[in-house]
Amino acid sequence: MPLSVLDLSPVSSGSTASAALHSTVALAQHAEALGFTRFWLAEHHNNPGIASSSPGVLMAAVASATERIRVGSGGVMLPNHPPLVVAEQFGTLEGLFPGRIDLGIGRAPGTDQMTARALRRSTGPLSADDFPEQLTDLIGFFAGGLPPGHPFGSMVAVPTAGAGPAMWLLGSSGYSAQVAGVLGLPFAFAHHFSPRNTLPALDLYRRSFQPSDALDKPHAMVAVRVLVAPDDATAQWLAGSAYLSFLHLIQGRPGPVPTPEEAENHPWTEEELLAVAERRDGEAVGGPAEVGEQLAVLLERTGADELMTTTVVHDPQVRLESYRLLAEMFAAAR
User: Fold this and answer.
1) Sign of CA dihedral 252, 258, 264, 265
2) Which residue from 152, 164, 201, 300 has the fewest beta carbons nearer than 10 Å?
3) For 218, left (φ over 0), alpha (ψ -120 to 50), or beta?
4) CA–CA separation, 111 vs 285, rounded Å?
């Protein structure tokens, strides 16, 4: 079971975005030493608690600081970027780090509507309806040519053509699952924030799958929030930071990741507790035995081919320790 990391470069209260970015590079080196397969970076905008707004740039830093681990985007939100720009950026990354680059493509904007307009330099209606066309163009640039009659048919993406990265489709609903299946691409599902849709989406992906040059059979990865600590009580206390951070986000006031003490002292209302409780459906939090049991159930239910884990805590050292314990669990299970 390939085990991987999805990182958002969380910015801790009392710290800086620069420190968060350096912590991400350190985590990638740590993950490589522990034997993780992939290290992916997210794309989020206009959130003071997340420093990963430019996955392509951060991927270059991570790949330069590592030697073996695959480095990817989890993902690039295609509606925010012209396909040609994405092709050129990731063709460059693949040229610099051949055989190590993953391009995870998402359909959502990864931000609020105002920020999405700023990214796209458009005041028109925002929609992901043109996603299939954008994706087709991107695949064409990587393949070395667009269909005859295409308005950009004479263009070549340099240094991309014929040497593109491994492409994945990301999703949290059935739409991207079906597109990934029809195109014969590997599919990564965001169980960590859409757990209710996980099984239906994976089923749709597998039923829709058509063999391609990339794959001859479906290949699915599931992303889950994981926090491993020496015991269940400590893990739950540490996880309070992520819960309070999520609460601030859905209340429209995103900010740096709070401390566990701040989360413990927050005057939680019944409505807030219910909102956070629903969030917990997409996570595995506890001591090694508890997390091992939760992940075993998830893998059995989903039939996933790979597992990607994401951990948001206040202290970067706690995050490193959580991944060490997780790697030890998987090594012991082999």
Assistant:
1) negative
2) 300
3) beta
4) 27
Give the number of other CB atoms < 10 A from CB of residue 120: 15
Global pTM reads 0.94
CB atoms near residue 98 (< 10 Å):
10
Residue 65: which residues within 8 A CB-CB, separation 6 or more? 25, 28, 29
Geometric angle at alpha carbon 72, from 67 and 73, rounded to 5°: 155
Separation in Å, CA 172 to CA 4, 35, 150, 198, 246:
18, 27, 31, 7, 17
168-203 pLDDT, tens digit per residue, is 999 998 899 999 999 999 999 999 988 999 999 999
C-alpha distances (whole Å) from 136 to each of 79, 132, 146, 164, 262 are 13, 6, 9, 14, 47
* Token pair of 123 as six digits: 């005041």
Torsion of CA 28, 29, 31, 35, to 10 degrees: 130
Tell me if 223 sits within 8 A of 308, measured CB to CB. Answer: yes
Element (H, E) at 139: helix 131-143
Task: Output DSSP code: residue 327.
Answer: H
CA dihedral 102, 319, 192, 41 (to 10 degrees): -20
pLDDT of residue 153: 76
Q: Tell me the two tokens of residue 35.
A: 């034997």
Give yes or no for a cis peptide into 159 (omega within 30° of 0): yes
pLDDT at 95 over 60: yes
Tokens 């693949």 correspond to what residue? 94
Report residue 248 CA to chain centroid gap: 21
C-beta pairs of 113-120 under 8 Å, 24+ apart in sequence: 114/46, 115/45, 115/46, 116/79, 116/80, 119/45, 119/80, 119/81, 120/79, 120/80
